[in-house]
């Protein structure tokens, strides 16, 4: 592996991000407001150590529905994304995919709830739609990096689909399978979180148990979920995944019936701005938009940016601390197993779920969101960087301890680390916005409030602003990767 010595531009960029986070820190509310946070944390840890598996029927139903929503949503996303990857070179397709993937699954779920209600279709589409945008982008990148020779030797006039199946897919197949497996793990996390808005998945039962103070039930649900993620490669083998995907729709349950009139009303009335719906004219529309921007969009944007930047820097710091836990250059085999287990727990716990738990323990502030985002994303980056460090070959006389870390290993891994951090930037921004549903005053807080008040026109404008913000951050991160000549990390994430 070629070494990477951080350049002055790279170091200035890093210091700039850290300085920005420090400048924004005074504007962040990071107080702990609960009376006895450590006592509650102790009760939660006791619940993890003494899990209650007596309610096996409920636990089994939660896991089964979590799996069903994940496999159905991801399978539909793969099908749509695979087709879009064929035409991803068209600007309109790229723009459409960027928009749908910039909106978090929970925002899509909140939208679909308005006209599908608590029906399985709400959860499936909430996962499938943004995942289709992600699959289209990453599949197209993987296919573009494939060997072009098979395509060049095909007979003239070979159709697009035949070219795709016989000349492009075979060479890219291992990477396509690897990335799809990674997104399946993400789908399981997304499916679990859908329970917090009423879908019958793990989050629904976990929220109920937590609200009642049944920490042993919380412990059982969390341990089952961690076990599900940790053993994913054992039971989700490629030859079995199609079987799971076919069976999953039949395990979603029936839910409440769809009232199709709600769909018509949503598009013809609910999302039409109130001034136009009430016949007040375009002047009133301008005032309506101005009030919405000043009282909700701009405050939500500011909080979202503040929280994101602090969480981004903390994520990077935790990843740099965490990767030696699984690196053969710093730990023994037994230590590596323990480190791997710790990082599996960190990266397997959805940010929304972890933030919800920390909010119960510490009270409402930005602190639970910052810590939740940093732990989850730091675990992901730390795992990937640690795995990459195992590919390094050091000199026989290489130094040990901190000198090995600072002078032998970190300089060669800093480029991939920074690429991954910039790749996660937009994801952290998306998650920051959605954490507003938990009461933190990010854009998601105002979106959720508008939906609760049945002001869907306001909610739609705020969701579009959220998507544009995410697209802007993603564009900035890609520009920085190009400037610093960092390898794009999306397709290599798993």
Question: What features would you describe in this structure?
Answer:
It is a single chain. This protein is mainly alpha-helical and 494 residues long. It folds into 2 domains: 1-30 and 273-494, Orthogonal Bundle (MetI-like fold), CATH 1.10.3720.10; 55-270, MetI-like fold (Orthogonal Bundle). Helices cover 74% and strands 0% of the residues. The chain has 21 helices and no strands. The protein has helices spanning 8-24, 37-49, 56-86, 91-101, 105-116, 120-144, 149-152, 160-193, 202-211, 215-230, 232-235, 241-247, 260-270, 274-277, 282-322, 333-348, 351-362, 366-389, 401-434, 443-452, 456-484.
Instruction: Kindly provide the radius of gyration, computed on alpha-carbon positions and rounded to a whole number of angstroms.
Output: 23 Å
Number of strands: 0
Classified by CATH, the class of the largest domain is: Mainly Alpha
The string of secondary-structure elements, in order, is HHHHHHHHHHHHHHHHHHHHH
Kindly give the count of domains.
2
Helix amount:
over 70%
Helix/strand/pairing class, anyone? mainly alpha
How many strands, which pairing sense, and closed or not: the largest β-sheet?
A: none
Kindly identify the CATH topology of the largest domain: MetI-like fold
Termini separation: 19 Å
Main attributes of the structure:
MetI-like; MetI-like fold; mainly alpha; disordered C terminus; transmembrane; globular; 74% helix; 494 residues; 2 domains
């Amino acid at each position: 592996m070629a070494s990477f010595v951080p350049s002055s531009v790279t170091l200035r960029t890093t210091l700039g991000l850290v300085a920005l986070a420090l400048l924004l820190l005074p504007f962040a509310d990071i107080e702990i407001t609960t009376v006895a946070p450590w006592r509650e944390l102790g009760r939660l840890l006791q619940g993890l150590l003494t899990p209650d598996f007596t309610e096996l029927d409920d636990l089994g139903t939660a896991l089964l529905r979590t799996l069903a929503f994940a496999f159905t949503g991801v399978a539909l996303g793969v099908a749509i994304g695979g087709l879009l990857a064929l035409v991803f070179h068209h600007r309109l397709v790229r723009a459409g995919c960027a928009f749908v993937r910039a909106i978090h699954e929970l925002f899509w779920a909140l939208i679909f709830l308005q006209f599908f209600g608590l029906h399985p279709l709400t959860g499936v589409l909430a996962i499938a739609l943004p995942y289709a945008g992600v699959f289209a982008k990453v599949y197209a990148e993987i296919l573009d990096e494939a060997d072009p020779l098979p395509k060049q030797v095909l007979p003239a006039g070979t159709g697009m689909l035949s070219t795709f199946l016989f000349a492009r897919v075979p060479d890219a197949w291992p990477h396509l399978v690897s990335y799809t497996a990674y997104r399946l793990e993400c789908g399981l996390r997304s499916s679990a979180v859908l329970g917090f808005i009423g879908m019958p998945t793990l989050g629904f039962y976990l929220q109920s148990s937590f609200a009642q103070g049944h920490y042993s039930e919380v412990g059982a649900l969390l341990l089952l979920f961690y076990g599900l993620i940790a053993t994913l490669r054992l039971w989700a083998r490629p030859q079995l995944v199609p079987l799971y995907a076919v069976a999953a729709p039949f395990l979603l349950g029936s839910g409440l019936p769809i009232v199709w009139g709600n769909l018509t009303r949503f598009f013809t009335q609910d999302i039409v701005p109130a001034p136009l719906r009430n016949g007040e004219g375009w002047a009133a529309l301008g005032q309506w938009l101005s009030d919405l921007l000043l009282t909700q969009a701009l405050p939500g944007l500011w909080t979202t940016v503040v929280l994101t930047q602090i969480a981004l820097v903390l994520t990077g710091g935790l990843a740099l601390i965490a990767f030696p836990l699984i690196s053969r250059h710093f730990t023994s085999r037994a230590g590596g197993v323990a480190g791997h287990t710790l990082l599996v727990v960190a990266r397997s716990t959805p940010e929304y779920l972890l933030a919800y738990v920390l909010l119960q323990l510490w009270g409402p502030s930005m602190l639970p969101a910052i810590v939740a985002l940093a732990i989850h994303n730091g675990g992901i980056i730390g795992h990937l960087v640690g795995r990459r460090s195992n590919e390094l070959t050091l000199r026989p006389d290489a130094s040990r301890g901190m000198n090995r870390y600072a002078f032998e290993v970190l300089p060669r891994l800093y480029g991939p680390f920074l690429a991954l951090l910039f790749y996660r930037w937009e994801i952290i921004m998306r998650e920051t916005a959605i954490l507003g549903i938990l009461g933190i005053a990010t854009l998601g807080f105002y979106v959720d409030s508008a939906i609760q008040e049945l002001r869907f026109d306001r909610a739609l404008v705020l969701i579009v602003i959220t998507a544009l913000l995410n697209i802007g951050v993603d564009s900035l991160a890609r520009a920085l990767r190009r400037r610093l000549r960092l390898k794009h990390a999306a397709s290599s994430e798993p």
